Amino acid sequence: MSGRMKKILIILSLALFLAIALFSLGVAYAAGIRGLGLLAIWFFLTFGIVVVLAQLIPAGIFLSSFISRAYSSLRGGEVPIRAT
User: Fold this and answer.
1) How far apart are the first and last CA of the chain?
2) Confidence of residue 73 (pLDDT cuts 50, 70, 90)
3) How sure is the predictor about 77, in pLDDT bands with cuts at 50, 70 and 90?
4) Per-residue pLDDT averaged across 47-68, rounded?
């Protein structure tokens, strides 16, 4: 992977993390939590969402490959040909 691509991925991952963190902060603040509790709830909500996403993304990839494998032929190189 090139250096430029790595920079783009780092920027995108930081933007996603910042969006999740700001959303968590907004939810905690709207719930009426203030002071030090706001920082604690912000921390737990942010990293809770990140952990859930870290589990859901590979699970979704696995599920989609499982479903596609169930409906495809057993031989991967086999190409269906339509009779005309």
Assistant:
1) 45
2) low
3) low
4) 89
Amino acid 63 reads: L
Q: How many angstroms separate the CA atoms of 31 and 25, rounded?
A: 10
Amino acid at 52: V
User: Residue 61 in 3-state DSSP?
Assistant: helix
Residues 60 and 13: their CA atoms lie apart, in Å, by 19
13 compared with 78, residue with greater pLDDT: 13
Virtual torsion, Cα 27, 29, 31, 35, nearest 10 deg: 140
Give the 3-state secondary structure of 12-33.
Answer: HHHHHHHHHHHHHHHHHHHCCC
CB atoms within 10 A of CB 29: 13
Answer whether 48's CB lies under 8 Å from 21's CB.
no
* CA–CA separation, 9 and 3 (whole Å): 10
